[in-house]
Each structure stands twice: as C-alpha cells, then as structure tokens.
Amino acid sequence: MKLTQKHQEYWRKNLRITGVLLAIWFIVTFVASFYARELNQVVVAGFPLGFYMAAQGSLVVYVLIIWFYARYMKRLDREYGVNEDED
After folding, report:
1. What pLDDT, on the 0 to 100 scale, is given for residue 65?
2. Of 61, 41, 63, 64, whose CA–CA distance to 51 is shortest?
3. pTM exceeding the 0.85 threshold for the entire prediction
4. What is the number of other CB atoms lying within 10 angstroms of the CB of residue 49?
5. pLDDT 10s per residue in the chain (87 long)?
6. Quick check: is 24 in a domain?
7. Exposed (0-12), middle (13-18) or buried (19+): which is 53, by Cβ within 10 Å?
8. d(Cα 17, Cα 70) in Å, to the nearest integer?
9. Torsion over CA of 13, 14, 17 and 21, rounded to 10 degrees?
10. Which pLDDT belongs to residue 39?
11. Judging by DSSP bridges, how do beta strands 47-48 and 43-44 pair with one another?
12. Which sequence ranges are marked TM in the entry (predicted)?
C-alpha cells in the first residue's frame, strides 16, 4: 500500500510531536531525578524542588503531556480528515 503525500505529512507531524513530548517526558523523569541534589537547593512552597518534582511536579507534567497530545491529535485528525468523531 502506497501512502499518499497527505498521509506521509500526517505521520510526519504525528511522529514529530510524539518525539518532542517523549523528550519532555525523559527530561522530567530522568534528568530531574539525576540532578535532584542540585534541585534541592531551590525551595518551592517550603519543599526542596527535587522533592516537589518527584512528588507532584512530574505528575502534573505527565497529565499536561497527555492533555496536549490528545488536543493536538484531535486537531490534526480533523485537519487531515481522519477524525473518528460522530457529528
């Protein structure tokens, strides 16, 4: 099956946003943990930033990543005519 130019463009945009969001996930998950000692020198609301990122901050970022991806893909699906919404 040969993909049309429109399909290739759709998948290129999909893979690009997936890559960017995975990079953000990696930074929040692994880089923030790696630099926890340095982050703990910054205090947010009475707690060290390293603790805050582990306990709350990373979870908030994960939810925002999911929300943004769903919103972005819904718009992209509508733009390329592959949406599954029933009107």
Report:
1. 97
2. 41
3. no
4. 19
5. 677 888 899 999 999 999 999 999 999 888 877 888 888 898 878 878 887 777 788 899 999 999 999 999 999 999 988 877 665
6. yes
7. buried
8. 11
9. -170
10. 82
11. antiparallel
12. 20-37, 49-70
Give the type of residue at 26.
F
Q: Tell me, yes or no, whether 9 lies in a domain.
A: no
- Count of structural domains within the chain: 1
Residue 11 lies in a domain: no
- In angstroms, the CA 28 to CA 6 distance is 33
Q: What is the DSSP string of the chain?
A: -PPPHHHHHHHHHHHHHHHHHHHHHHIIIIIHHHTHHHHTTSEETTEEHHHHIIIIIHHHHHHHHHHHHHHHHHHHHHHHT------
Q: Which two tokens stand for residue 85?
A: 């919404």
What's the Cα-to-Cα distance from 57 to each of 8, 51, 63, rounded to whole Å? 36, 9, 10
Range of the domain at 69: 16-79
